[in-house]
Amino acid sequence: MNSYIKNWWNWLRYEPNDPLFKSGGVIRIAVIGGGTGLANLLRGLKQYSTHISAIVTVADEGGSTGQLREDFDMLAPGDIRKCIGALASDESLLSNLFEHRFSKEKKLFGGHTLGNIWITALTDYFGSFEKAVEVTSEIFQTAGRVLPATLSNIDLVIKYEDGKTLKGEHYLDEILKKIVKVTLTKPSAAAYDKAASAILNADLVIVGPGSLYGSIIPNLLIKGIRDAVIQNKKAVKVYIANCSTERTQTRNFSIEDHIKEIKKYGGKKIVEYCLVNSKILRSTEDETVLGEIHNITTNKKESEGVKIVLSDVIDDKNPLFHDSDKLAKSLIELYNKVK
Fold first, then answer.
1. What CATH architecture applies to the domain 20-57+187-339?
2. pTM for the whole thing?
3. Residues 265-317 pLDDT 10s
4. Where are the domains of the chain?
5. What 8-state DSSP symbol labels residue 185?
6. Using CA atoms in the order 298, 303, 307, 309, what is the torsion angle rounded to 10 degrees?
7. Is 214:156 a contact under the CB 8 Å cutoff?
8. The pairing of beta strand 273-277 with beta strand 306-311
9. Could you report the per-residue pLDDT of 226-261, keeping only the tens digit for each?
């Protein structure tokens, strides 16, 4: 009876061709990740819900972000900036503004993006990174909240197969060695309470997409984030597998390898489903010094106890990445099917 009432209510509230009609507009979604992959997903998801919480890694320390972290002793603004832009009501304007990067020849702002400078300025003004992100989201009327996974200043520690250990997320894209373990400089870093709460109260919890060791696993290394996902018994929990390998981190990985790593750091019950790209469109011809990139998929229905759902979620024009609209649509269809 409840499903009939809900469908009737949706008919009253939305036109059938409105994406919000498909979701009812009330799905509480928590997305865990970082970088370009998370921002790309958010662009599609905001069509289906206005109750989105993006839980973002703050372990990035390369480029403009790294310089600002060092100069102002603050959390990493880069991935936060991308997610706010993706969720903004007027994304075209904000993205163009926030992603504007000053040329390296400029003495004062050389190499920095306007969005990073903006968040840094508000952090300095309010004396709080948390407040800076909150105010920026309010100003640009985001379809939900962008939340740092932790308020602790953390860095990634990478251990390679040859025994060498390096501190810094940027090494992930610079060294062609097999990674055996990643940890945080502050293993006891507490989860940001609002991020943990958003996960606990979500109807749909999404892990990824994004750099496996750079964007996803750093979040799962935070006990409060990991525990919140596991403790939420009512949510549909989905891991979005990358549709391509990465030159260094996951150059020889299969879909099954990705799932194994997610379970290794997140625990056996971290996700129930894995959404996998079903098409193979591209493999780079030039391997270069750091190896090739190619699309990955699988013909398995289950791996490590996780149910695999195949769907065409690849961007036909940029086939090494997901299509934000197709990806979001597939996630909502999966959610509706399970629920």
1. 3-Layer(aba) Sandwich (3.40)
2. 0.89
3. 999 999 999 999 998 886 655 555 445 678 999 999 999 999 999 999 999 98
4. 20-57+187-339, 61-142
5. S
6. -10
7. yes
8. parallel
9. 999 999 999 999 999 999 998 889 988 999 999 999
